[in-house]
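The following block was generated as part of the benchmark described in Methods. Ligand: zinc ion.
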Amino acid sequence: MVYGIVSRRPSPSHDQLNMAEDGERVDGINTSESGMSLKKVLSGASPLSLKIIAECPVTKARACDLALPHSTVSTPVFMPVGTQGTLKGITVDQLESLGCQICLGNTYHLGMRPGPDLIEKANGLHGFMNWKRNLLTDSGGFQMVSLVELSKVTEEGVQFKSPYDGKEILLTPERSIDIQNSLGSDIMMQLDDVVSSTVKGPRVEEAMHRSIRWLDRCIKANKNPNKQNLFAIIQGGLDAELRKACLDEMTKRDVPGFAIGGLSGGEEKDDFWRMVTLSTDHLPREKPRYLMGVGYAVDLVVCVALGCDMFDCVFPTRTARFGSALVPWGSLQVKQKQYAKDFQPIDPDCQCPTCKNHSRAFLHALFKSDTAAMHHITIHNISYQLTLMRSVRQSIVEGRFPEFIRTFMKRMFPSREQYPGWAVEALASVNVVLE
Amino acid sequence: MAGTRMKLELSHVVQGRSRLGVLKGLGKTGQHSLEVPGCLLYTHFGSVPHLTQDTLHYLNKLPSVTQVTLSNIAEHQDVLEEFKRGFRKFAGLHDTVLYCSLHDPAAACPTGYTTNKTVSVWGSGGRLELTVAKFMALQKTVQPDFYQSMADGETWQTNASRKRVRKSVDRTLAHLDECLLVQQKSQQPQAVAQPGKTPKIDCMAANQMFLCTMQAPPAQSTDRAPQELDGVEMFGVVEGGDILEERIRSARETAKRPVAGFCLDGLQTGSMDQALRTQMITAVAKELPEEKPRLLQGVGRPDEVLACVEAGVDLFESFFPFQVTERGCALCFRFDISPDPERAGRAPPTVLGPNEEEHAAGETQQNGDLDCDDQTQMTCFEMNLKDKRFQDDFRPLMEGCGCYCCKNHQRAYLHHLLVTNELLAGVLLMIHNTSHYQSFFGALREALANDKLDLLKKRVLGDGGRPTERRE
Ligand SMILES: [Zn+2]
Ligand SMILES: [Zn+2]
Ligand SMILES: [Zn+2]
């Protein structure tokens, strides 16, 4: 089995008991102290360096070189998600030739199948999937809360029933890091107490405080601090006070990077961007900022302007399966009848292998004959996301990001009236007025 | 008939039957060739299953001929008619010879739908009935280099009566004559009055089409009038079920027609046992001219391929690696007869541990009856990567295989991709299986060249003449 298995009564031999004690000990006022002491221990040791190449003089956007153990990542960056140690029918060579420097693996899925022991034997997830560049793994907690119905969060960790054999499983912060250590990712995420962004009240505060305690347990549990970076996840729901408190506390820890969590879960976009910008206001300039689960083109451009460096989302690859191709003017549903005799490529300006070789009409027809049709769209969509972020970066470096935003919005929406209000407001907050 | 440039040059014939040679003069300008015995590249709508052009080109030594089927294409006729520049360009295929057959050899084709005047193909939208006129109109939009003539091939069922078989031979010959007539008509005025024949509007449309599409040099769209069949060659279809006289009559009559080669139909895996198939093919081969190629439809299993080559077959369709891929399996049979173990894909066998011997023994029973008619069932030429024993097997699919999959990935990873239903499993397996199958044909040609067919048969089939168990 993969995660620590809990019988009805936890067996005393199991290491979870110690963890629970740890959790209590670091509770409350001790938290900041342990955080401070850790700062000394870890300072300078993290296998990551962030070099700021350019900062937008108008917005909060920045272009950085993020050096990670396997290669240097140019930010702002979109990270495609390869849930099961593979990216939807795309080979690692294809991914590499699209210019992808970092992609995601899901700890929950990989921890279940094939399991951390096997992946460790295969020289980590890099070896298992034969990916030579960087990997980021999540904590597994989010999947559990969102995928598994019977999950219960206690101070120890997240408890749930295995969807494969029904066994009770407990994912503690220590166990999450243990698995991520086996996976050998370049960036690991702390286990956080995830609450849906639509939940309000004391549960949000509890989750925020618990996430801080779990961060300390994760830092302590990391067996490879010289090889694997551990990112903290800022929680606090949509409550500015709580977010601020979480930021204050977490930034006291010398973690190599920070993620903004608990968003992109169905909250109002007005709340979303305000929480993002509040977070980047208080995050240290010299560390990478990762906005979790965000991948729509407009969200990416706006949140880069708000100061985020890294993004991930399953959307571009998931939507490809249904024939939805991402284009500068939104999306194009290749399976729709109107494309049956359309002999242009998906996007005549796109340089991806799909657009260079195939027309909309051919892809439309191929969807009726072979799954390769999906692969073609997946390639195009990943290329779209990566190219978008490269152009964003280029414009930051060349000092014309505000201009880029205006052009981008004009192309994306048929008229000024269709600009989403939240985006207009968010951009105005960083001095970009859309005409 | 003018235009038959395709020519089979035999370099070696073993025991008067197994033929080694090169099929020359393929393609519009005759610059392509294909070694025989060989196979065509199997595709779905011009696309090798699971693969994009990137992943397809991980494979070196791809067959120079790509096979497409009307069952995939027929429902898109209006699209191709509007496109005007043929299927090859439509599918983004570049430097390949295009062969168009009627049915998909890997897809079931329901019977009971042929008439005196029509045959039916089954696409994603269901059944489409083709008359000769419609069939030829389709060929004009596809613009293949060569194609299978329309045929009534519904006699593969074991209970087909002599009367039904005779009817199928007659119908198929009638279809062939009609097809040839249309083809001749389409060619003759071509040479005389091409400019006048193509309405001006068509040229305009073709040019506009070019403007809004990609990357075709303008010369290509004007060097031949669209939707005509000059230079396109036809393969006649030999039917006759399992009735020897009908087979011979079909072969004799078809050979009298100006066809470039022959499709041997109704002999597919599952329709009859190999002894009977060998008997039919041997008899048919005697009736066919030496210099024209014989393409056997619906047979792809290595043991059957070997037997059919011995009976005089030149070409096969390569749907077998696709079927193996679809059941989550990897081809792993051995065909190394070269004394030099350094040769790609022919490494010496790895010594098996006692555990693995046990597994292999278990597999023998699992594989079951070789004479099984079910094409979807695993054969003994492959291993099932979903099997739990591969979950921590960090070896490549096949030791010594030089394909992209074997060079980059391990069995454990393939196992994981299969149990998690990940699309990459199909991609990687298709690469390995296609590569392995192509190498098998390479070994087969080499064996013929060196008079070592018996040795190859022994290696592939095992000493008892039955296929060997996997020994990786
Ligand atoms: Zn593209
Ligand atoms: Zn596929
Ligand atoms: Zn291989």
